[in-house]
Amino acid sequence: MGQISVEKNVAGIEGLCVITPAVHGDNRGYFMETYSQRDMEEAGLNMVFVQDNQSMSAKGVLRGLHFQKQYPQTKLVRVIKGAVFDVAVDLRSDSATYGKWYGIVLTEENKKQFLIPRGFAHGFLVLSDTAEFCYKCDDFYHPNDEGGLAWNDPEIGISWPQVTGTYPGSASAAGYTLEDGTALNLSQKDQLWKGIRDTFSFHG
């Protein structure tokens, strides 16, 4: 399969994939193919990506959980500097794993990539001093189409590494820190999302 290995349906969640590229290194450094449409198609992954995004975040920043309502996106995410804990939550109403989450540590050292299909919420927590995060999308960004879920919704029950604090009944970051005392840092908008039961009535 060329330059990647693909673990499909991770944690029993259909469509979620962890992709590990082949890294060719010696005492000069390393080389790897970060994306090959041919290798993806050979693995049965036929999405066409149309946009690349990159962000930088400081330690303790938690972004998410986000999804697109009318224009869902498949995302292929990776970290080029630092480390994050990356999470996907299945929001497909007809899925046997609706509401189930999976998380993976992505780092500049392990070079793993996480493929998140359409129909999932996505978020990540920065574990290093800073992290640079890159992702491909198979649809363009549409303003005003973003939805979200509370990052700490007890019904979903994400086990965020290094996070300490007591659930206050909302998505507020108040009182939450990492184990080293770094305050959890969420946008104002991300602290207002509701839980999965209040957001989606068809499973309520």
Structure at a glance:
With 204 residues, the protein is mostly beta strands. It has helices spanning 37-42, 196-199; strands at 4-8, 17-21, 24-26, 29-31, 51-58, 62-68, 75-81, 83-90, 101-107, 113-116, 120-126, 130-137, 146-148, 163-164, 177-178.
Average of pLDDT = 95
Order of helices and strands: EEEEHEEEEEEEEEEEH
Counted by DSSP, the helix tally is: 2
What is the makeup of the main sheet?
6 strands, antiparallel
Question: Which of globular, elongated, flat, extended, rod-shaped describes the shape?
Answer: globular
How many whole angstroms does the radius of gyration measure? 17 Å
Question: Which regions contain 5 or more consecutive residues with pLDDT less than 50?
Answer: none
Q: In what order do the strands lie side by side in the largest sheet? A: 1-2-10-7-12-5
Per DSSP, what share of the residues sits in E-state strands of 2 or more residues? 35-45%
How many β strands by DSSP? 15
Q: How far apart are the first and last residues' alpha carbons, in Å?
A: 43 Å
Query: Into which percent range does the helicity of residues fall?
Result: under 10%
Class per helix and strand makeup: mainly beta
Structure characterization notes:
A hairpin with an 8-residue loop joins β1 (4-8) and β2 (17-21). The protein has 204 residues and is mainly beta. The protein starts with a strand and ends in a 5-residue tail after the last helix. The mean pLDDT is 95. The strands form 4 sheets. The chain has a 6-stranded antiparallel β-sheet with strand order 1-2-10-7-12-5, with no helix packed on it. Helix content is 5%, strand content 39%. The radius of gyration is 17 Å and the shape is globular. The chain has helices at 37-42, 196-199, and strands spanning 4-8, 17-21, 24-26, 29-31, 51-58, 62-68, 75-81, 83-90, 101-107, 113-116, 120-126, 130-137, 146-148, 163-164, 177-178.
